[in-house]
């Protein structure tokens, strides 16, 4: 579904990604973890077309899509979300979701629609339908950002720190939505700092440190890997999430 | 020289959306029926008074208002909906007037036959300057290039004596031929033409506003990066909006020619482009009624005040500054605030 | 032929220096404060009028030009304080406000000074022969002064404490604030310097061209073209682009057509945006 070959990138003289090789199969639910500055968001930017990698190629559904524009990739079904609460501030929740909704290309239209409905219900977005996105509480703003990405009917979703800033209850709702989405056949890659949030959710974890891929496997195995523990500067951070 | 600062790094817009400007663009929720009704009422006055009045002056003023209304309504498509400062609007207005007049003079075309090639020329030019500049996010390149283009067109028109008559302008001897049994050649006929174009422009703007295209433009205005992540082709949508905006301005220009009977490079001046931007800012960007309010205030008020033209422009400049600093949603925003139900009320 | 080319080249350099002086102010304000200041051309116009009235009052060209620079520096500081300070961080509002300022300043000037063109006697006249080349003394002087202004500004950025603060802010606004650079002070300084440069350019314009209330748009247009051509916000880019544009216009009107003199720069800009989207010096940014 998604394959990276030798992805490398630098900002100025700083090498932020070095020869990343990995792939994600259709229907997988993968966590991408690593300490701050490990290059997770840069990798997302490269996969979603916002940054052209210095070296290496990105393949999506077997096609080489390196350097393709974000909107083209989104139309093909590869959609990412952004860190923080990125919404259209002066549009209402309803308008925002309408803008994001695309005529679903190909498959899983019904399943996606069901998940969107669930998401709207769980987060009570309907009750806020007429409110401007910029005036929502910050947790809801984040949820709206994810709901917009869902509404595109994407079959590959890249979620960048979706749980940051959410309350415990909201986080559980989000896990529920992601699980349902996964069951509906969507391929999902999640970046998050909160390992508790991720570990209860994903079936596979990829660990980045200083721009290098240092571990890849089931979450339990990965968190036990001494290199991962070291990358996070001791187990305290892991427990702390 | 290599040690010189690269100031561009500081020019990257802040990640957090600037609040005043965003707010100023205003929300476009469809709930504002009352605002729409007021807009239609304003439009009705604008259209009805000259149509029934016997005074030539009223008809003249009505035509002028209608033509400027077209300019404001069309500019609103790229600037209000898509959030891009297009500063060559008067240039496209002038371009339309000159292209049509030259086609009629040199190729013996009828007024009506000159319209399609004029529209095509405007579309082509808009695409040619839109493509290089609209690929950049943030709108600064576009503002700067459209401004430079407007000045360029004016200067070339003033310098190209053989074709345009130079700074002295062109006397026009033609008037629109009768069509479908309607005499468009008279003062009142030209007024009907201008008013008709205004209604068409409003219909186009409304159709765009409530279409997928219009929603995409609004999304682009709000956040280009987020819009593109959701599958919206940002550059193509902005370009389409700019082409439509410019073609409508050029068509208004074709009517201005026979209306006044004389055209000169003056009509393309930068301050005229800025005036149209001012109409939108004062009226309320991005709303359907805003451009109409703005036109009435910008064109009507000074006519009532009857001060010298220079001071009128000074006053309008001050109004622009005051509105941007103190009433960012324009007149439409102020009216909306007055008529909006209190918090908790039905929506 | 070779002689002709050399002559055209030198003519281009002379105009280019003037353009670069205007563009420097625009790119500086945009790069540091994030405001595309359309009222910059009005500073050029007002500077030209100060020079004209100074010369008429018998102050002589040099004193009048100095007065223009000082007056425009103060003008820039006042505008920053009254208007642009309120739009910091919102570059579209800043742009809109500066459009309003054009209307206010230009038409007040027209009402006060009348639209009639005025002329300033240049401080030097005639021409000098350098080998086989005939050079207008006044244009040569303009080139010397604008080069001195650009060079002086460069030294200021490199050496003066405030210059270093400006460079720091250009690199990283938050970082500069953390190490004690007062961002608001720098912002006012930038407007003051930008407007003072425009005032100097106005004095030079007055010595070459007619002074009218509407003269501000041409230098503004050229300045915009240069700022974009050089890569928005890039100081070396704006300077290089200034000389490039002067030369392009000079050759274009000598060998192609003089009617399109003002169009050559624009065509250059469109080509540059298409093929060098980040400007001459790789600054600026592209891609959605």
UniProtKB/TrEMBL annotation, chain A:
Pfam families, alphabetized: ABC_tran, BCA_ABC_TP_C
Keyword flag Phosphoprotein: no
Protein name: ABC transporter ATP-binding protein
One cellular component term from this protein's GO annotations in UniProt: plasma membrane
Domain of life: Bacteria
Molecular function as annotated in GO: ATP binding; ATP hydrolysis activity
PROSITE patterns membership: ABC_TRANSPORTER_2 (PS50893)
ABC transporter domain location: 2-235
Keywords: ATP-binding, Nucleotide-binding, Transport
Alphabetical list of SUPFAM superfamilies matching this protein: P-loop containing nucleoside triphosphate hydrolases (SSF52540)
UniProtKB/TrEMBL annotation, chain B:
Localization, UniProt: Cell membrane
Segments crossing the lipid bilayer: 33-51, 57-78, 85-104, 110-131, 138-157, 189-208, 239-264, 276-298, 310-328
Domain of life: Bacteria
GO cellular component, one term: plasma membrane
Example GO molecular function: branched-chain amino acid transmembrane transporter activity
Membrane topology field: Multi-pass membrane protein
Alphabetized UniProt keyword annotations: Cell membrane, Membrane, Transmembrane, Transmembrane helix
The protein's name in its UniProt record: Branched-chain amino acid ABC transporter permease
Automatic annotation (TrEMBL), chain C:
Principal subcellular localisation of the protein: membrane
Gene Ontology cellular component annotations, sorted alphabetically: plasma membrane
Alphabetical UniProt keywords: Amino-acid transport, Cell membrane, Membrane, Transmembrane, Transmembrane helix, Transport
Membrane topology type: Multi-pass membrane protein
An individual GO BP term: amino acid transport
Bilayer-spanning residue ranges: 12-39, 59-79, 91-113, 140-157, 190-212, 224-251, 263-283
Subcellular location: Cell membrane
Stored InterPro entries: ABC_transp_permease (IPR001851), BCAA_transport_permease (IPR052157)
Pfam families named among the record's database cross-references: BPD_transp_2
Gene Ontology molecular-function annotations: transmembrane transporter activity
Assigned protein family: Belongs to the binding-protein-dependent transport system permease family. LivHM subfamily.
UniProt-recorded name of the protein: Branched-chain amino acid ABC transporter permease
Protein source organism: Chelatococcus reniformis
């Amino acid at each position: 579904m998604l394959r990276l070959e030798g992805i490398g990138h630098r900002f100025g003289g700083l090498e932020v990604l070095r020869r990343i090789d990995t792939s994600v199969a259709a229907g997988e639910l993968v966590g991408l973890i690593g300490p701050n500055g490990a290059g997770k968001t840069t990798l997302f930017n490269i996969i979603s077309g916002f940054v052209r990698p210095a070296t290496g190629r990105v393949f999506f559904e077997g096609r080489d899509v390196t350097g393709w524009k974000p909107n083209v990739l989104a139309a093909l079904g590869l959609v990412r979300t952004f860190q923080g609460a990125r919404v259209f501030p002066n549009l209402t929740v309803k308008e925002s979701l309408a803008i994001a909704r695309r005529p679903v290309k190909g498959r899983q239209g019904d399943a996606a629609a069901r998940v969107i409905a669930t998401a709207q219900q769980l987060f009570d977005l309907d009750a806020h339908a007429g409110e401007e996105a910029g005036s929502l509480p910050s947790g809801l703003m984040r949820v709206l950002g994810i709901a917009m990405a869902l509404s595109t009917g994407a079959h590959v979703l890249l979620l960048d720190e979706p749980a940051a800033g959410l309350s415990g209850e909201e986080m559980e709702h989000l896990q529920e939505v992601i699980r349902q989405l996964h069951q509906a056949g969507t391929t999902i890659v999640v970046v998050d700092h909160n390992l508790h949030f991720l570990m209860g959710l994903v079936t596979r974890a990829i660990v980045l440190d200083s721009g290098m891929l240092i571990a890849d496997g089931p979450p339990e195995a990965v968190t036990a890997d001494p290199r991962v523990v070291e990358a996070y500067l001791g187990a305290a951070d892991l427990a702390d999430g | 020289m290599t040690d010189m600062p690269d100031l561009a790094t500081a020019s990257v817009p802040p990640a957090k959306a600037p609040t005043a400007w965003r707010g100023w663009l205003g929300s476009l929720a469809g709930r504002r029926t009352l605002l729409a009704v007021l807009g239609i009422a304003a439009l009705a006055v604008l259209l009805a008074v000259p149509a029934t009045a016997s005074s030539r002056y009223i008809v003249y003023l009505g035509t002028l208002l209608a033509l400027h209304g077209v300019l404001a309504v069309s500019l609103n498509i790229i600037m209000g909906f898509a959030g891009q400062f297009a500063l060559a609007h008067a240039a496209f207005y002038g371009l339309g007037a000159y292209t049509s007049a030259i086609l009629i003079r040199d190729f013996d075309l009828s007024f009506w036959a000159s319209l399609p090639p004029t529209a095509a020329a405007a579309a082509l030019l808009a695409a040619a300057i839109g493509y290089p500049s609209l690929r950049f996010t943030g709108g600064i390149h576009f503002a700067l290039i459209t401004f430079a283009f407007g000045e360029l067109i004016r200067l070339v028109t003033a310098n190209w004596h053989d074709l345009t008559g130079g700074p002295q302008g062109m006397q026009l001897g033609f008037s629109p031929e009768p069509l479908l049994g309607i005499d468009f050649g008279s003062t009142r006929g030209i007024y009907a033409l201008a008013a008709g174009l205004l209604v068409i422009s409003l219909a186009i703007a409304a159709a765009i506003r409530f279409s997928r295209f219009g929603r995409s433009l609004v999304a682009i205005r709000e956040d280009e990066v987020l819009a593109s992540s959701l599958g919206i082709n940002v550059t193509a949508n902005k370009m389409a909006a700019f082409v439509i905006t410019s073609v409508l301005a050029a068509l208004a220009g074709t009517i201005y020619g026979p209306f006044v009977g004389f055209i000169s490079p003056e009509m393309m001046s930068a301050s005229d482009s800025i005036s149209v931007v001012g109409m939108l800012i004062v009226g309320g960007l991005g709303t359907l009624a805003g451009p109409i309010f703005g036109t009435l205030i910008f064109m009507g008020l000074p006519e009532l005040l009857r001060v010298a033209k220079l001071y009128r422009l000074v006053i309008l400049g001050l109004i622009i500054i005051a509105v941007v600093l103190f009433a960012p949603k324009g007149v439409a925003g102020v009216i909306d605030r007055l008529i909006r139900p209190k918090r908790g009320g039905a929506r | 032929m070779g002689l002709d080319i050399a002559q055209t080249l030198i003519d281009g350099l002379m105009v280019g220096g003037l353009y670069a002086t205007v563009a420097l102010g625009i790119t500086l304000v945009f790069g540091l404060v994030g405001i595309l200041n359309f009222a910059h051309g009005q500073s050029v116009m007002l500077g030209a009028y100060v020079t004209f009235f100074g010369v008429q009052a018998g102050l002589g060209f040099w004193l009048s030009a100095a007065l223009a620079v000082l007056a425009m520096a103060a003008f820039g500081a006042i505008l920053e304080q009254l208007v642009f300070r309120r739009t910091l961080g919102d570059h579209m509002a800043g742009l809109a406000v500066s459009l309003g300022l054009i209307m206010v300043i230009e038409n007040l000037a027209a009402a006060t000074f009348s639209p009639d063109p005025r002329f300033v006697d240049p401080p030097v006249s005639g021409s000098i022969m350098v080998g086989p080349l005939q050079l207008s003394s006044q244009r040569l002087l303009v080139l010397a002064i604008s080069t001195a202004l650009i060079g002086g500004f460069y030294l200021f950025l490199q050496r003066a404490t405030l210059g270093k603060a400006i460079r720091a802010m250009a690199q990283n606004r938050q970082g500069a604030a953390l190490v004690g650079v007062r961002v608001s002070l720098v912002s006012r300084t930038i407007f003051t310097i930008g407007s003072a440069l425009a005032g100097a350019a106005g004095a030079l314009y007055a010595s070459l061209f007619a002074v009218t209330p509407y003269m501000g748009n041409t230098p503004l247009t050229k300045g915009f073209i240069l700022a974009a051509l050089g890569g928005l916000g890039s100081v070396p880019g704006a300077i290089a682009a200034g000389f490039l544009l002067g030369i392009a216009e000079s050759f274009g009107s000598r060998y192609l057509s003089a009617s399109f003199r003002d169009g050559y720069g624009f065509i250059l800009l469109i080509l540059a945006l298409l093929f060098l989207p980040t400007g001459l010096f790789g600054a600026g940014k592209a891609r959605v």
